[in-house]
Write a structure and sequence with these properties.
The structure holds two protein chains of two kinds. Chain A is an alpha+beta fold. Chain A contains five helices and four strands. Chain A has a four-stranded antiparallel beta sheet with strand order 2-1-3-4. Chain B is mainly α. Helix content of chain B is 50%, strand content 0%. Chain B is built from six helices and no strands. In chain B, helix 1 crosses helix 5, helix 3 packs antiparallel against helix 4 and helix 4 crosses helix 5. Classes of the chains: A alpha+beta, B mainly alpha. Chains A and B meet through helix 2, helix 3 and helix 4 of A and helix 2, helix 5 and helix 6 of B.
């Protein structure tokens, strides 16, 4: 019999005929990395490993069997930056409220990355980065303004003293 | 699954070099100047709200550490003492990146450690603001010299009108 099974999201699907499965692969709803099985196979294998499922060679120039995506769908764990130290520096140095938000995001990114969810981890890491930059810029600006504003009375007093001295 | 993601940028060599340079300048200023000196800025948060953030006192603690006065540093900001090995390791990573120009992999931190660090920083910020604020052991305070008692108020020295 021509009964094939395939696995999507850890759920068994099928049975479908070989032609149907090839169409699913060609259409992209079953990926080359998904597991397939049919009677006679000892274990599940990825679709790419089963030669019967390779698309029929077209007349003339042969097409590559599976077009490689331009970039992988999920980034490698090493591509997820760790902003935890930056977040702590932002909190401790200048800008507590935004810094705490960035700590929370950085911790989430770290946990997601450690559990292998790198795409989600990267989103969280980017959020942490945004909050670190915003809180550092805001904290620095506010502190600079108030720092110089605290000298303002002394400045005006000195200025008044100088101008009254000139008037006399 | 079509989760969209953007490649996060990792710090470049130039950035790491700038960071190391800034750290060296900061260390030099701390070795030469006294933070209690008037020219050091005071954090806006504590001036406006009176709240001690987790980093309050860390500049004075860093000054004390730079001069080898560990007890004084712990009184100004104990959190800095706990975090300084982590910060030193992190600065070393940036120094290596600045010196070699090689992109280093993002440091891997265990999940429990990251959660513990976040809890430590945020919890410390809460604990040091709890009353009694005047004698909370975690508040930034100076242990170098207790203010001398004012002579006029010493009982023996107070002028009592003679009968």
């Amino acid at each position: 019999m021509d009964a094939w099974y395939y696995a999507r999201d850890n759920k068994q699907q099928g049975p479908v005929t070989r032609e149907e499965l090839r169409r699913l692969i060609a259409g992209g709803s079953v990926r080359a990395s998904d597991y397939v099985w049919t009677e006679g196979m000892t274990d599940w294998q990825t679709a790419a490993q089963v030669p019967e499922l390779a698309p029929p060679a077209a007349e003339g120039a042969p097409r590559p069997a599976m077009p490689m995506p331009a970039r992988p769908e999920t980034p490698a764990a090493s591509e997820v930056p760790n902003y935890l130290v930056w977040a702590i520096v932002a909190t401790v140095c200048c800008c507590m409220p935004g810094g705490i938000v960035s700590i929370v995001f950085a911790v989430q990114a770290n946990s997601l990355r450690n559990s292998g969810q790198t795409a989600e981890a990267l989103i969280m890491a980017n959020r942490a980065r945004t909050w670190i930059i915003v809180s550092m810029v805001v904290g620095l600006a506010v502190n600079l303004v108030t720092f110089f504003a605290s000298f303002l009375p002394a400045f005006t007093k000195a200025f008044e003293a100088a101008s009254s001295g000139k008037g006399l | 699954m079509s989760l969209r993601w953007r490649r996060a940028t990792t710090p470049s060599r130039l950035f790491s070099s700038g960071l190391c340079l800034a750290a060296l300048c900061g260390a030099a200023v701390l070795l030469l100047r006294e933070p209690a000196w008037r020219g050091y800025p005071r954090c806006t948060l504590v001036r406006v709200t009176g709240l001690y953030c987790p980093g309050c006192g860390s500049l004075r603690a860093a000054h004390a550490l730079a001069h080898g006065r560990v007890h004084e540093a712990a009184a100004w900001n104990p959190l800095l003492m706990v975090l300084s090995p982590l910060l030193a390791a992190w600065m070393a990573l940036h120094a290596v990146r600045a010196a070699t120009g090689k992109e280093l992999p993002a440091p891997r931190i265990a999940t429990w450690l990251a959660v513990a660090l976040a809890t430590l920083v945020i919890g410390f910020g809460i604990l040091r603001n709890l009353p009694p604020r005047g004698s909370n052991p975690l508040r930034p305070h100076d242990i170098r010299r207790a203010p001398p008692s004012i002579p006029a108020l010493r009982p023996g020295l107070v002028d009592t009108p003679e009968p």
